[in-house]
């Protein structure tokens, strides 16, 4: 369901202000790139922007939602709006050729014609060059909106002819709120929101049994490390290595382990700090009391080093054993 204007203002206040100013001052460019990660509201804000441009009765930067144009934008039936999606892996030259032909035809209706390219970074060389020619010589009152998650993959010549609208990541507090509204516990929401900024991916992770097991195993290892090296090695061999068989799984597990130590540092600095693992608060407070910033910093460096070793395809058993020895140092005397 599309977000309302209030939600969009909370989600992307800077972008919304930019677009409202553009319309207020009638400074519309002929081409825009909406650039931001998945889930940052690009499609909803594009819809709002288009609607506001075409609305017959806008009021204080809000489309009326009831006029003929607003209703047709919502239903996807406005004759002056054309949306292009990748056909398979790419947006192909035939799609751009057809689009250009449509844009050059006399419109069924008066007024601005708008075309939207979804995943514009997936233009191939031929389609990108044809689009570039049309961007350089638009025919009549035509506007382009290019949506992308990877602007750096687009031709520099296309980027230079568009006004860049940068979408920020979803504010952490809003992502947490949305997750809890989707029946995700606060503890799990706090963890998955550290791994992704995209709501759908976060909800998937939060409901994934394998991820729940990964989280549990990582926290079990943190506690074992605090006891002694033998306990830690036991958890590594009996639970960690059998569970994290794929490289990507091991990488995520090391990230989760790093977040645990980052929590301990944050709690040491501020006992009320927001955590990746709020359900471990009491345990981590105790760990913070019995460690120094220097030691915690060394432990985090050791985990980062393990991540580098993983990328270099070091033997994983050996890598984890070495990591346990590095993490264990300093706990012996506390």
Automatic annotation (TrEMBL):
Keywords assigned by UniProt, alphabetized: DNA replication, DNA-directed DNA polymerase, Nucleotidyltransferase, Transferase
DNA polymerase III delta subunit C-terminal domain span: 239-328
Gene3D superfamilies hit by this protein: 1.20.272.10, P-loop containing nucleotide triphosphate hydrolases (3.40.50.300)
InterPro entries: DNA_pol_HolB (IPR004622), DNA_pol_III_delta_C (IPR015199), DNA_Rep/Repair_Clamp_Loader (IPR050238), P-loop_NTPase (IPR027417)
Enzymatic reactions: DNA(n) + a 2'-deoxyribonucleoside 5'-triphosphate = DNA(n+1) + diphosphate
SUPFAM superfamilies noted in UniProt: P-loop containing nucleoside triphosphate hydrolases (SSF52540)
EC number: 2.7.7.7
Protein name per Swiss-Prot or TrEMBL: DNA polymerase III subunit delta'
Organism: Lysinibacillus contaminans
């Amino acid at each position: 369901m599309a977000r309302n204007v209030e939600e969009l203002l909370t989600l992307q206040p800077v972008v919304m202000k930019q677009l409202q100013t553009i319309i207020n001052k009638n400074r519309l460019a002929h081409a825009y790139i909406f650039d931001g990660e998945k889930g940052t509201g690009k499609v909803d804000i594009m819809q709002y922007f288009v609607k506001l441009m075409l609305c017959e009765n806008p009021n204080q930067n809000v489309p009326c939602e009831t006029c003929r144009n607003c209703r047709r934008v919502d239903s996807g039936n406005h004759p002056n709006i054309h949306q292009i999606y990748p056909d398979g892996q790419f947006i192909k030259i035939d799609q751009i050729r057809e689009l250009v032909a449509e844009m050059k035809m006399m419109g069924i209706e008066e007024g601005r014609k708008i075309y939207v390219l979804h995943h514009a970074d997936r233009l191939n060389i031929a389609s990108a060059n044809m689009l570039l020619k049309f961007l350089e010589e638009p025919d009549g009152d035509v506007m382009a909106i290019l949506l992308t998650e990877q602007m750096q993959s687009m031709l520099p010549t296309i980027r230079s002819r568009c006004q860049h609208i940068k979408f920020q990541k979803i504010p952490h507090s809003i992502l947490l709120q949305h997750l809890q509204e989707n029946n995700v516990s606060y503890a799990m929401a706090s963890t998955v929101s550290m791994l992704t900024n995209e709501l759908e991916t976060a909800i998937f992770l939060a409901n994934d049994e394998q991820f729940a097991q990964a989280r549990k195993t990582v926290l079990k290892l943190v506690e074992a490390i605090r006891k002694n090296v033998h306990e830690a090695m036991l958890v590594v061999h009996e639970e960690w290595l059998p569970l994290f068989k794929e490289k990507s799984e091991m990488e995520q597990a090391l990230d989760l382990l790093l977040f645990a130590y980052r929590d301990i540092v944050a709690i040491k600095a501020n006992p009320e700090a927001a955590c990746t693992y709020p359900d471990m608060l009491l345990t981590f407070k105790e760990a913070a009391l019995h460690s120094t910033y220097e030691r915690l910093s060394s432990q985090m460096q050791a985990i980062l080093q393990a991540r580098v070793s993983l990328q270099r395809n070091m033997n994983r058993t050996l890598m984890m054993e070495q990591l346990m020895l590095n993490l264990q140092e300093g706990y012996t005397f506390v």
